[in-house]
Design a protein that fits this description.
Number of strands of chain A: 11
Order of helices and strands of chain B: HEHEHEHEHEHEHEEHEH
CATH class of the largest domain in chain A: Alpha Beta
Structural class of chain A: mainly beta
Radius of gyration of chain B: 20 Å
Shape of chain B: globular
CATH architecture of the largest domain in chain A: 2-Layer Sandwich
Oligomer: heterodimer
Number of helices of chain A: 3
Shape of chain A: elongated
Largest interface: A-B, 16 and 18 residues
Structural class of chain B: alpha/beta
Number of domains of chain B: 2
Strand order of the largest sheet of chain B: 7-6-5-8-9
CATH topology of the largest domain in chain A: Alpha-Beta Plaits
CATH superfamily of the largest domain in chain A: Aspartate carbamoyltransferase regulatory subunit, N-terminal domain
CATH architecture of the largest domain in chain B: 3-Layer(aba) Sandwich
Number of domains of chain A: 2
Chain lengths: 153, 303
């Protein structure tokens, strides 16, 4: 059984999306990737919450908003363990894992200072070459980056 | 992207590589043609590289084509802050093919996405230089009669040397056995060893440049001083990785020594007279390979 307090925390919006199990240090990157600063929905953000699974976690609740898979999978790079709770009428009607995409377009920045993407006004593009370890390869300069080197654009 | 572009050696399949090498042999037999008559090729050198530019421009001229372009971005609108995107768009209005060299990694891939013309990458930063790889392959093919089942020894800077990485990828089609000889600072990067392992390619690693008896190809590279944090180590390594004529005693008659040039001290001048020294002919082979690549990019080699 899930902790009932946590269930309450998750279900405390009437309709919308709760993104749970975000690593605390990545919470604000998720906020940025989803462009929540420019959202007019009611948003509740919790961070450094205790979690049995991962120590400290972050959680984001967005009222009256549902994300398309393409949209939400963008956060896979920084929050591969995140769980999506779809809330309808105060109930969790669906739980979804984040899916790691094959390609990551214009979300992260290449760590190679000599990469063309850091000098031209252009989109970045990475191929995910290892989904377990989150290793990506720049489509342009062909540099390989590991998860701890990934920076949001 | 134009499907005829050559940005990275991995854009070419094994069959395509062999077709290009066969075409190169035909151009070597008869280099002067008129097949590019009426065509304009732009050679855009955003950073200077006299050797590569002259080789490309000679290839174009020997095929009867015309050349426009620049040899240094200092005199172009790039120095006024024009984006690569805009320069490529502008040139695409004028030419039939773009050959480009650029100091930034990935520039050629980007240009190939921006332009409707085929792009030939003549070097993008420290990333790719596929015509160098093709001329290495052609040199191996020509001197050994085959690319299959060869013992390839790679020597020197295996960490930063893009030519050895591209050569490794290209040779992977042909069941090679590799010997990597490098100081610990300049070892073959892990990703390429994993690549070998995944593709069932045998390799071994050595520190010393000796026991060359099995080698079919000795691929020498430049060990650059600026790669070392410890200059004492550089001084030691520099001498260890210098090939001298006496070290070739007991090697195969068919052994050939390649080097992408320019050399600094890795090959003693006393090797030059040895018939196993092939690095100057190797550079010349670049002309025929580039004739083949240019002809292919313009749809003039049958598929």
């Amino acid at each position: 059984m899930e902790d009932s307090k946590k269930e309450m925390l998750v279900a405390a919006i009437e309709n919308g999306t709760v993104i749970d199990h975000i690593a605390s240090e990545k919470l604000f990157e998720v906020v940025s990737i989803l462009n929540l600063a420019h959202s007019s929905s009611e948003i509740t953000i919790g961070n450094n919450l205790k979690s049995e699974k991962q120590g400290a976690k972050g959680i984001i609740k967005i009222a009256d908003t549902y994300f398309a898979p393409d949209e939400i999978n963008r956060i896979a790079l920084v929050a591969p363990n995140a769980v999506l709770n779809i809330i309808k009428d105060y109930k969790v009607v669906e739980k979804r894992k984040i899916e790691i995409p094959d390609h990551v377009i214009d979300i992260i920045r290449c760590f190679n200072p000599k990469c063309i993407t850091n000098h031209e006004p252009m989109q970045t593009r990475f191929d995910v070459i290892d989904k377990q370890k989150m290793i990506v390869k720049c489509h342009y300069c062909e540099s390989v980056m590991e998860q701890n080197q990934i920076k949001i654009k | 992207m134009n499907a005829k572009s050559l940005v990275s050696i991995t854009d070419y399949s094994k069959e395509k590589i062999l077709r290009i090498l066969d075409a190169a042999a035909e151009f070597e037999a008869r280099p002067n043609r008129e097949t590019l008559k009426g065509k304009v090729v732009a050679t855009l050198f955003f950073e200077p590289s006299t050797r590569t530019r002259l080789s490309f421009e000679t290839a174009i001229n020997r095929l009867g084509g015309r050349v426009i372009g620049f040899s240094d971005a200092a005199n172009t609108s790039t120095s006024k802050g024009e984006t690569l995107h805009d320069t490529i768009m502008m040139v695409s209005n004028y030419a039939d093919l773009i050959v480009m060299r650029h100091p930034l990694d990935g520039a050629a891939r980007y240009a190939s996405e921006v332009s409707s013309l085929p792009i030939i990458n003549a070097g993008d930063g420290s990333n790719q230089h596929p015509t160098q790889t093709l001329l290495d392959l052609y040199s191996i093919y020509k001197t050994q009669g085959t690319l299959e089942n060869l013992n390839i020894y790679m020597v020197g800077d295996l960490k930063y040397g893009r030519t050895v990485h591209s050569l490794l990828m290209a040779m992977s089609h042909f069941h090679p056995t590799f010997t990597f000889i490098a100081p610990s600072e300049l070892e073959m990067p892990e990703q390429y060893k994993i690549f070998c392992w995944e593709n069932g390619i045998e390799y071994r690693e050595k520190r010393d440049l000796d026991e060359l008896g099995e080698a079919d190809i000795l691929y020498m590279t430049r060990v650059q001083r600026e790669r070392f944090q410890d200059l004492m180590e550089y001084e030691r390594v520099k001498d260890v990785y210098c090939l001298k004529n006496s070290m070739l005693d007991g090697t195969k008659d068919t052994l050939r020594i390649l080097h992408p040039l320019p050399r600094v001290g890795e090959i003693d001048m006393d090797v030059d007279a040895n018939e196993k020294a092939y690095y100057f002919q190797q550079a010349k082979n670049g002309l025929y390979v580039r004739q083949a690549v240019i002809s292919d990019a313009l749809g003039m080699l049958e598929d």
